[in-house]
Design goal:
Length: 214
């Protein structure tokens, strides 16, 4: 994490307007293009995690359904878009480095989004939430928030989650502050079964919109 009190900034260096929703800023770069938005932040963190374990397993589906693999990208196989069709294309092959991953993510961010990511994930009951899960509403507009930690009160069994997001325009990935319940700081109580929605500072999700990577 960056130092306490660090402002969340947009891809162009301007401060995010709603600083009150920012509890902390994640120490990870924002590409200079307006690309690393909400679903892209989830993709970025997932890609970094998988890359650190096995680069050959990094892949994401584009909105068209095209399955874009990092291993193909570094082997010299990428794609081009003609009207609404995704077609194979060649590029120079390179080693599967972290810098190559950054290059792979630029077209991924451009042609994937909440809709494709929502299709790629599987539904999980909200009471079973765990770190790495995603609250996601696929569409235009849509939004995605990553669950980064889970805690449980041992007496009441109430669960609480830490949430991280980017937003529009592209901006620093940041941990959200619970502005509706300031006493909880950055923690959000998981809604009870009778509650139909999960409120976050910049989006309200249905309780059926928690999903998980396979």
């Amino acid at each position: 994490m960056r130092a306490a009190g660090t402002k969340a900034r947009l891809y162009n260096g301007q401060p995010k307007k709603r600083q009150e929703v920012v509890a902390a800023v994640v120490d990870i770069d924002v590409p200079p293009q307006d690309l690393q938005q909400c679903a892209d932040a989830v993709i970025r963190l997932r890609a970094e995690y998988v890359f650190s374990h096995d680069p050959n397993k990094v892949h994401f589906h584009l909105t068209t359904g095209y399955d874009f693999w990092f291993s193909d990208f570094v082997a010299g196989r990428t794609f081009r878009v003609a009207k609404e069709e995704v077609l194979p294309a060649a590029r120079p092959a390179e080693a599967p480095t972290h810098a190559a991953l950054a290059r792979y993510l630029v077209p991924t961010f451009g042609y994937a989004g909440t809709l494709s990511l929502s299709r790629e994930l599987r539904l999980v009951p909200l009471p079973q939430v765990q770190p790495g899960d995603v609250l996601i509403h696929g569409g235009s507009p849509g939004h995605a928030v990553l669950v980064v930690d889970v805690a449980e009160n041992p007496t009441t069994r109430q669960k609480y989650v830490l949430l991280a997001q980017s937003y529009m325009p592209a901006q620093n990935i940041h941990v959200l502050r619970n502005i509706d319940a300031p006493g909880l700081g950055a923690w959000f109580a998981v809604p009870a079964p009778a509650e139909a929605q999960f409120d976050t500072p910049e989006w309200t999700f249905a309780r059926e919109e928690l999903k998980r990577f396979e």
